Model the fold of this input.
Amino acid sequence: MMKKRMTEQQEFEIMKLVLDKFLWIGIILMLIGIYFMFTKTITHGIYFMITGIVIMILFAWIVVKEFEIIKKRR
Done:
């Protein structure tokens, strides 16, 4: 069975969908952290903030890595 190859545009669209989810999850976690900082304890909120920040850093790393691969391919 022969596998079909995706075009660069199709790869880019899938990458956008996946990375968009990382971005939303990171932002939502950081907003929950801010909410908990005001309603509960500051340390409880900071845990959510740190988790959101880690996800955002992972997001940035994936974007940089993907663009480096695209540059090398051309």
